[in-house]
Write a structure and sequence with these properties.
- There is one protein chain.
- By secondary structure, the protein is mostly helical.
- Helix 2 runs antiparallel to helix 4.
- The termini are far apart.
- The relative contact order is 0.17.
């Protein structure tokens, strides 16, 4: 394979993964804002309407817990998928830089960084972790999770006050 084809291949891999990352982030924000809108609308309905809501507290609590739990798990999984796409794009870009600098064509390993991190995490702790601090960007997930829990709690308090 000549260098131009290898560079085009690396460029394609990088652009594809960057596009997947960008699209996933857009969907992630839409879903996050939809969940917050749901909680906000339930609070707004209760505050603007002088109507007695006849909903079982336990059933509502369970439904809110399930919605919050599933959305937090969704954001954790999205975070992990985003990190993989970023890692693949970075590795393809590094390979492209090596090719442009005149180094020989080597076998492209998109998973190189992920395997090194997984091996390092296994040495430190054998437990499976959903969020590994070394992956970067985990504050985004923690912030979204905190806001969802805060909105769910406020909505429940207002709904049953």
């Amino acid at each position: 394979m000549d260098i131009d084809k290898a560079i085009d291949f690396c460029k394609f891999i990088s652009q594809t993964n960057r596009t997947l990352f960008k699209n996933r982030k857009n969907h992630e924000w839409r879903i996050f804002l939809s969940i917050l809108t749901f909680y906000s609308l339930t609070m707004l309905y209760k505050l603007t309407q002088d109507v007695e809501i006849k909903i079982d507290f336990l059933a509502c609590l369970i439904a809110y817990f399930i919605l919050s739990f599933l959305s937090i798990v969704f954001f954790i999984l999205m975070h992990r998928a985003n990190n993989k796409n970023k890692s693949y794009a970075h590795n393809a870009e590094k390979a492209m830089q090596r090719l442009i600098n005149g180094e020989d064509i080597q076998k492209l390993d998109l998973f190189m960084d992920n395997y090194e991190k997984q091996d390092e995490n296994k040495k430190n702790n054998n437990k499976l972790k959903l969020i590994v601090p070394g992956e970067g960007g985990y504050w985004d997930v923690l912030l979204k999770s905190s806001v969802i829990i805060l909105f769910a709690g406020a909505s429940l308090i207002i709904l049953f006050s």
